[in-house]
Each structure stands twice: as C-alpha cells, then as structure tokens.
Design brief:
This protein has a single domain, classed as Rossmann fold (3-Layer(aba) Sandwich). The chain contains 8 helices and 7 strands; from the N terminus they run H-H-E-H-E-H-E-H-E-H-E-H-E-H-E. The N terminus is likely disordered. By secondary structure, the chain is of the alpha/beta class.
Length: about 220
C-alpha cells in the first residue's frame, strides 16, 4: 500500500530513510501475515483470541513495541505507523521473537483510531515522542489536538491509560493542556514502564529533556 510522506519533523530522529534490504524483505515476506486492515469487530478473528487490547501510535523502528509485546503476552497489541522502514523493522522483530500477540496498522493514526477501534475497546494507548512541529505556525499539524484527544479518550475503556513521552518542553506543555481539558480523562503518575530506545538515547545525548505524561479514562 503506498504510504503518504507527510509525517512532521521530530525533535527525536524518526525512521524516514531509505529502506534496508532486510526491511524490504521483511515487508515482502511478512506484511500479509502481520499488517492488517480489519473492521472494529474483527480483532478477535485477527488474533484468534479475546484479550485486552493495547495500541502504540507512531512506533518508529518498533523497539519499544516489541519489548511491550514480549513482556505482555496476555495483551493483543497493535502498532500504528506510516513509514515502511519502521514497519519492516518491526516485522523482522515479530518473526525473530515468534510473537503472536502483535499486529500492524499502516497509515494515518487519527483516521485508523476512529475507523478500526470501537469506543471503549482499548486498555492502553502509548504515544512515544510524537513529532513536535516546533514552529508556532505549524502547531496545527501536531498529532495531539482537541479533536484527536477526545477520540483517544473515547477509545479507552474505563480506567484505561494513555501514556505519552516527548523531548520537547513546549510540546509537553501543549499536551498537558489539550489532554487535561478532556473531561473524561484525569492526570495520573507515569508508570515508568517505557524503555529507552536508541532514538531517545540520541536525543538525550543532544541535551533533550524527557517528559513523561499519563492520563486515565474516568469510570
């Protein structure tokens, strides 16, 4: 499926380069098995079981997504990403780890969240280092906007969690304001479960301060 090349620029590096041969081969061999396009009621069929669901939006090269899937075999997990290199890297990891609880949605996160998940379907959503669009005139392109925040909250089950991280202080304040204004969400302490990926490590070496945020759907 052709993918639009319109993802915004991130403070932390994103996987936008040319695909490696390994990633390309993984896409050719494994996409039909793990890149899915279900309707909201078809997730049981996709995974072959009923289990609580989690989603990671913009998984980059998939390091944190793989760790989550390995550690939480009791969850059905879905990664959402636009860029083929990251998807190819994640598929390689799925095969290497022999994972049966992880699938991929390919495309725009806002559209896919609305189209592929029923209200109250998700136990947890993770968004690590979304592109910050630091220039003021570009703020309207940021992922976390009031409409998307309301949609995120609607897809969480009662007590479901939304976890975020950013290396942009301005974007952290923006997300706090937008998500804090959603009446069905409440701020909670971050869980501390996030691993440090190589992209975050590079950002830290560049002096980027990391902010973790966590919200929970009210009962």
């Amino acid at each position: 499926m052709p993918l639009p090349n319109n993802r915004p620029k991130a403070a932390t590096p994103r996987p936008r380069g040319r695909m490696t041969q390994r990633q390309r081969r993984a896409l050719e061999r494994l996409a039909s098995l793990y890149v899915v396009d279900p309707k909201p009621h078809q997730w049981r069929e996709v995974f072959g079981r009923d289990a609580p669901m989690g989603v990671e939006i913009g998984f980059g090269m998939g390091q944190a997504t793989l760790e989550w899937a390995v550690r939480r075999g009791d969850l059905n997990l879905v990664g959402i990403e636009i860029y083929p290199p990251g998807i190819g890297a994640l598929l390689t990891g799925i095969e290497r780890e022999g994972l049966v609880n992880l699938r991929v949605l390919q495309g725009d996160a806002a559209a896919l969240l609305a189209e592929k998940f029923a209200p109250g379907a998700l136990q947890e959503v993770r968004i690590w280092f979304p592109d910050p669009w630091p220039k003021r005139r570009h703020h309207k392109r940021r992922l976390i906007q009031p409409e998307f925040a309301a949609q995120l909250a609607s897809r969480l089950q009662p007590h479901g969690k939304l976890l975020l991280a950013t290396d942009s202080a301005d974007y952290a304040a923006w997300m706090e304001g937008v998500l804090g204004a959603v009446p069905t969400l409440r701020r909670i302490a971050p869980s501390g479960e996030r691993i440090c990926t190589r992209f975050e490590s590079k950002g830290r070496r560049l002096g980027h301060a990391i902010t973790d945020l966590a919200f929970q759907r009210k009962n």
